């Protein structure tokens, strides 16, 4: 099978790739039947040697994913992430027209890996996401109670890294991400799945910026959203 990862950056310490949607980063207790993971494909790119994920992307989210080529580098860069020294940028298509920019400062309750434990008491943590609206459109399709439907392309900048933070925050401000089965709007998700022949979460990690853990030099890695994402963006006439 062709390796689904696209290499974006490599040196003696790091391997950065683009992960497609619908690929797990590593094994998960809630997807025990899966046999393919970004981790194994990254190891293949690394000549068979072990690599260590520095962060995670949810299975339906595509985009930039960083692996370290040693445990020490993974630890150093992971600590930088925890300290807020790593900047990430995402693009998302959402329902409605958000303000031009804003800050979502809304604490989130931990989501356990095992959904059967979701009713147990979970820790509530601070969570902050900044956003900027990049484009808006209105299509002449009645999906809910209005004769037309509005959508926006937004850039999202998480200041914290809580589980499903971006999806939950956009739902919190009533602009859910298209294709989000858990926090979105089913009618809109179905419309785009039918129109484009396949449903997907319209969330992509496009940029990551950090100080190199060895040299200290600024690293900025960018990846355009994959074709299945860009296809849906054809509803925006000005993009």
TrEMBL record:
Keywords: Isomerase, tRNA processing. One of its GO terms (biological process) is tRNA processing. It catalyses: uridine(65) in tRNA = pseudouridine(65) in tRNA. Its EC number is 5.4.99.26. It holds the Pfam family PseudoU_synth_2. The keyword Isomerase applies. Residues 13-172 form the Pseudouridine synthase RsuA/RluA-like domain. InterPro entries: PsdUridine_synth_cat_dom_sf, PsdUridine_synth_RluA-like_CS, PsdUridine_synth_RsuA/RluA, RluA_PseudoU_synthase. SUPFAM superfamilies: Pseudouridine synthase (SSF55120). It comes from the Bacteria. GO terms for molecular function: RNA binding; tRNA pseudouridine(65) synthase activity. The keyword tRNA processing applies. Responsible for synthesis of pseudouridine from uracil-65 in transfer RNAs. This is tRNA pseudouridine synthase C. It comes from Marinobacter nitratireducens.
């Amino acid at each position: 099978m062709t390796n689904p990862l696209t290499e974006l950056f490599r040196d003696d310490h790091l391997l950065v790739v683009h992960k497609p949607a619908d690929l797990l980063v590593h094994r998960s207790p809630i997807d025990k039947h899966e046999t393919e993971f970004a981790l194994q494909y990254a190891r293949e790119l690394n000549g068979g040697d072990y690599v260590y994920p520095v962060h995670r992307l949810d299975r339906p989210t595509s985009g930039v994913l960083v692996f370290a080529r040693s445990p020490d580098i993974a630890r150093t860069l992971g600590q930088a992430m925890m300290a807020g020294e790593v900047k990430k940028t995402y693009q998302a298509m959402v329902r409605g027209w958000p303000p031009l920019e804003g800050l979502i400062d809304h604490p989130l309750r931990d989501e356990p890996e095992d959904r059967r434990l979701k009713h147990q008491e979970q820790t509530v943590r601070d969570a902050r996401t900044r956003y900027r609206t990049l484009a808006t459109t209105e299509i002449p399709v009645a999906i809910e109670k209005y004769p037309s439907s509005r959508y926006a392309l937004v850039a999202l900048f998480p200041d914290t890294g809580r589980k499903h933070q971006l999806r939950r925050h956009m739902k919190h401000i009533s602009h859910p991400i298209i294709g989000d089965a858990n926090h979105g709007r089913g009618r809109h998700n179905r419309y785009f799945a039918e129109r484009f022949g396949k449903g997907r979460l319209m969330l992509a990690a496009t940029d990551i910026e950090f100080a190199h853990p060895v040299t200290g030099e600024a690293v900025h890695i960018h990846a355009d959203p994959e074709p299945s994402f860009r296809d849906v963006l054809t509803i925006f006439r000005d993009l």
